[in-house]
Write a structure and sequence with these properties.
single chain, 385 residues, mainly alpha, 15 helices, 1% strand, disordered C terminus
């Protein structure tokens, strides 16, 4: 297995695990004492509050770094027109299918259970139908913006990220991680200079969410722009990272509820720093332990899209039953994760893998297309953007 193939394998494995973690996260929300999710049990445990907050620190930020990385690799492999067609097919078709079928079902479940007051006009106009699919909307926006930007810079004869790669080529990645949270702080400061960031377009496109996760997606693009960047990122001194991690956690625990401007700046800087440190650790762990083919991790990565799309409705179905039975939190969580995981995997095995139509509808690709002989993904075989 070539170095590039190893990188692609372990990063795809990371992507799969991050998506499947949605099962754990949303199952934990059912028994979270905060009771701020779609359904919530009276049987709660503080453990799930910590679990939710911990997973939220790294899961979606790391996912968007991975998405940015694969975005540029795909663009390098294909011509712009094919790149756009593949990305739109992979995102738009599953997005529409899940909204119309899966999210309609879970809306009816919530309405019948008294968790949601259904008003079809509001449901459509305010984008209530998005639920857990918001990340697909974000990705669609990022890919379209990247595609437009690539056309512009290619017309100008400048390779995307070339200047940034050159500027950061010799900078220690520890310094990069320390500086990156400043971008998030800058985004949060935009309202103070009169730029609104907390608004939605058609109730679907969340402008704050787009801004918040954009640095992670751009960082993924950056890592893919030069061969040695990912290697350097995954080779950061782990002891130093762990030291920064402890410091950031201590700062957040000390401030808890920031009041003054200074406290808010320090608190949100520490919060963003935690995410970047966790991302670096995720990439290191998967490079260290999952850079060779393993049947179970390969299967998980292949099934992760299906699992993520379908798991939400199963969490609501089984979670509602467990709530009605008043099952203790810890037992309920384990049962919910197992039932949801098994049901989602069965959907992948018995439906998605058996039907070309369903595979296109919910995975955005033709059945068995991954088994076809692929063109080697090298930087010499195609023109770099």
């Amino acid at each position: 297995m070539s170095q590039l193939s190893q990188r692609i394998f372990y990063i795809d494995a990371l992507r799969g695990v991050l998506m499947v973690l949605g099962v754990v996260l949303h199952s934990a929300q059912v028994f979270n004492p905060m009771s701020d999710w779609l359904i919530s049990s009276t049987q709660t445990n503080i453990v799930f509050s910590y679990l939710v907050s911990t997973v939220a620190v790294f899961r979606m930020p790391a996912f968007f770094v991975v998405s940015g990385y694969f975005c540029l690799l795909t663009y390098i492999k294909y011509q712009p027109a094919k790149f756009l067609r593949l990305r739109l097919t992979r995102l738009v078709i599953p997005l529409i299918s899940a909204i119309v079928i899966l999210n309609t079902v879970q809306t009816l479940i919530l309405s019948n259970g008294g968790w949601y007051q259904l008003n079809w006009s509001r449901y459509i106009s305010q984008g209530d139908y998005i639920y857990h699919l918001w990340f697909l909307v974000n990705l669609l926006c990022y890919f379209l913006l990247f595609f437009i930007a690539s056309l512009v810079v290619n017309r100008l004869g400048v390779q995307p990220l070339k200047w940034l790669t050159h500027c950061l080529a010799k900078i220690d990645f520890i310094l990069v991680i320390i500086l990156l949270p400043i971008i998030s702080l800058s985004i949060l400061m935009l309202p103070s200079i009169g730029l609104p960031i907390y608004w939605k377009l058609f109730g679907v496109i969340d402008f704050y969410s787009l801004l918040h996760y954009a640095p992670y997606f751009l960082f993924g693009l950056f890592l893919a722009s030069k061969d040695d960047l990912l290697e350097r990122f995954t080779s950061i001194n782990r002891l130093f990272l762990l030291g920064l991690l402890v410091l950031a956690i201590a700062v957040k625990a000390y401030i808890k509820q920031p009041e003054s401007i200074t406290e808010k700046l320090v608190f949100y800087y520490a919060q963003s720093l935690l995410s970047w440190i966790a991302i670096a650790l995720c990439f290191y762990v998967f490079k260290r332990f999952f850079n060779h083919a393993k049947s179970w991790i390969s299967y998980l990565a292949a099934a992760s899209y299906t699992i993520y799309l379908f798991h939400h409705v199963f969490v609501l179905i089984f979670g509602s039953v467990l709530i009605a039975l008043n099952v203790p939190a810890l037992i309920g969580f384990v049962v919910l994760v197992l039932l949801t995981s098994i049901s989602s995997i069965l959907c992948h095995e018995l439906m998605i893998k058996k039907s070309s139509i369903l595979s296109i509808l919910f995975n955005g690709k033709a059945l068995h297309s991954s088994a076809k002989k692929a063109v080697p993904l090298t930087r010499d075989s195609t023109k770099s953007p």
